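Objective 1b. Sequence-to-structure analysis of Thymidine kinase.
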Amino acid sequence: MAAVKATALSNLRDRSSEFRVIGIDEGQFFPDIVEFAEDMAEAGKVVVIAALDGTYQRQGFPSILTLVPLSESVIKLSAVCMLCYAEAAYTKRRGQEKEVEVIGGAEK
């Protein structure tokens, strides 16, 4: 199954009837994620969301923190230290950008 690009999840509501499972990546960047996830779960869909729970400044993403008590299960993964490869509690931005959302690929 191919991924579907979206800037707002509400744009996908009409297509949701085609699927039993809905996977969302980078959930922290969708402003309507809480409402969409609740609606889809109430419609009997399995909703899987991959998201950061906090910024590189260790500030929470409110929408993701709102989803935690609504979720049937939560799996929290650790960061990895790029110096010693041990588990790390937080992510660290490698660039100098100050914005919370920075678009980039392998070069970042």
